[in-house]
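REVIEWER CHECKLIST
Item 1: Sequence provided? yes
Item 2: Single chain? yes
Item 3: Sequence as submitted:
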Amino acid sequence: MLGFINKRMLQWRKLHNTALAKTLPEPFDRLNASEFRQYCRTFLQQNFIFTLQQRYSKLLSCCRPSPSLDPILWIPMQPIERSRLIRWSLGWLPGGSPRPCLCGLHKLTKQHVISCLHMHFSLHIPLEMEDPISCVLNRIPTRPSRLLHTQTYWTLHWVALYRLLYKVDMIQHGTNYDPTALTTLSLDSAFLSWITPTT
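Item 4: Structure as written out by the authors:
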């Protein structure tokens, strides 16, 4: 019993020395669960904003403007789709070191492929947005929609995203495009079935 008490006291001391604990009002034991969760959310949001303002937060600035689980990690989609979306969000191109682009003018960097594949035009995103794919991904809803214009928007944009990331994958691996994959994406994909419920 004494060992258990000592272990709990050690854990409490560790918690007491964290950055989160220093933002909590004392005494801690007067906080109920709802209040504690609110302090946690506030702490995470403030820490997120602080990190976002740091010099080396370029990738983070392309993510959703809130500390939450990104929908691309859990919404229904094919594994290859999820893999390509995650790799794009992390700034990775498949296959290791960049290969020459098909245009023959530049290596396949993220900045170049955005311009070379005319991603802004394909996704109907203003040119002022540095990363049009991340801009679209940040708009992905977290629940299905019954609104026809929302369903139409995501049907068109999901197909466009699929085709663009497919092209990036093929260029980086030095493989020719498969015309079938570019022109006949099944509209019965897991994501589109989820975003356009029939009932």
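Item 5: Key structural point noted by reviewer: Confidence is low (pLDDT under 50) at residues 1-6.
Item 6: Recommendation: ____
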